[in-house]
Design goal:
It is a single chain. This protein has helices spanning about 1-15, 20-45, 65-75, 85-90, 95-100, 120-135, 155-160, 210-215, 220-230, 240-245, 250-260, 270-275, and strands at about 50-60, 80-85, 105-110, 145, 165-170, 180-185, 190, 195-200, 200-205, 235-240, 265, 275-280. The protein contains twelve helices and twelve strands. β3 (about 105-110), α6 and β4 (about 145) form a beta-alpha-beta unit. With about 325 residues, it is an alpha/beta fold. Strands 1, 2, 3, 4, 5, 6, 7, 10, 11 and 12 form a ten-stranded mixed sheet that branches. About 35% of the residues are buried.
Length: about 325
């Protein structure tokens, strides 16, 4: 069919040239058609639709069995995630997080406090403590930091610059597309996460916890993930409260489909970041998203949701002599 289309195209072209020899014309068209097929058909056959570039960000919370479950499932698929880790959790489970880092997970310093309007001295104390715990206890260079609501202000940027923290995570301002803002007036970059918005949910990251407390059901949660991927942005971020996403059956059912999908790549942090859109701006020109408020609606408490089976098997117990305690998963 393709040969006939090519042949007919050149037939129309050469029909306007009356002096051309018909035999020559047929041979020419045939040779050209074969040449085009040899060159282009293999490329068409081997062409693959680019997969969505997805970063999974896990918020480390207790109980830790949700995070342990996430790690096992990702490791089994040779996939990695970024993990938001507070200094208090890092101090409580240092060996566990050192192990995660060694397995290719990106650890992000995290504060559970909102930084918008927080005094400089308080921000400095929190960020310095986090830096010390990462560098001295975990022996990991802290180069990226995030806060509750992914909030920050000019104090945050000044402190990050002084502490040599390269990235601050901000609330999304470019819809589903994650974006990096290279600041012209600071030696700090801002990572704007994927964000969804509609009349019911207002503005929120693609986060199971944020959507859950806004009253979104599992159908709506799955819809936002699928719609975001369908729009084919260069980079998407999906955030999971490790306890909610890693232990509750209805959420894990969606995540299992996500991890097993042939249409996306669950990338490690560095691979994901290398494909994110980059924008250079002065800080004053970077858009800010403070739409954290929402109309409170009834929602099911997390502990009332059905849990996955064998949840008690997922522990933060280290291996002894290369083996886990009988009947458990450990590290």
């Amino acid at each position: 069919l393709l040969i006939m289309k090519i042949f007919n195209f050149f037939k129309k072209v050469f029909s306007k040239i009356k002096s051309i020899d018909k035999t020559f014309f047929k041979i020419f068209c045939l040779c050209l058609s074969l040449f085009l097929l040899v060159v282009f058909i293999p490329k068409l056959v081997n062409y693959k639709t680019p997969k969505a570039n997805v970063l999974v960000i896990l918020k480390a919370v207790e109980p830790m069995n949700g995070l342990m479950h996430w790690q096992i499932e990702l490791d089994n698929r040779n996939q990695k995630a970024a993990v938001l880790v507070s200094s208090s959790l890092a101090e409580k489970y240092p060996d566990f997080f050192i192990n995660m880092h060694g397995r290719g997970y990106k650890l992000i310093g995290y504060s559970e406090q909102d930084f918008w309007g927080m005094p400089y001295s308080d921000q400095l104390d929190i960020m310095t403590k986090t830096k010390q715990v990462f560098n001295n206890l975990l022996e990991i260079n802290l180069d990226i930091f995030a806060t509750e609501n992914f909030s920050y202000d000019i104090n945050t940027l000044n402190i990050a610059q002084d502490l040599s923290i390269e990235y601050i995570i901000k609330r999304g301002t470019t819809s589903e597309e994650s974006t990096v803002y290279n600041l012209a007036d600071f030696d700090v970059k801002l990572i704007s996460l994927s964000n969804v918005k509609d009349s019911h949910l207002n503005s929120t990251p693609i986060s199971d916890h944020d959507l859950h407390i806004r009253g979104a059901d599992i159908v709506e949660w799955e819809k936002h993930i699928n719609n975001s991927i369908t729009k084919k942005p260069k980079a998407i971020s999906v955030i999971s409260d490790s306890y909610l996403g890693g232990t509750r059956k209805i959420y894990w059912t969606v995540y299992r489909l996500l991890l097993n999908s042939n249409h996306i790549d669950i990338n490690d942090f560095d691979t994901w970041l290398s494909k994110v859109n980059q924008i250079s701006l002065k800080n004053i020109n970077v858009p800010i998203n403070k739409e954290v408020g929402f109309k409170q609606v009834p929602y099911t408490p997390i502990d009332k949701l059905e849990s996955i089976t064998d949840l008690d098997k997922y522990t933060t117990t280290p291996k002894e002599k290369g083996k886990c305690p009988k009947g458990t998963y450990c590290y």
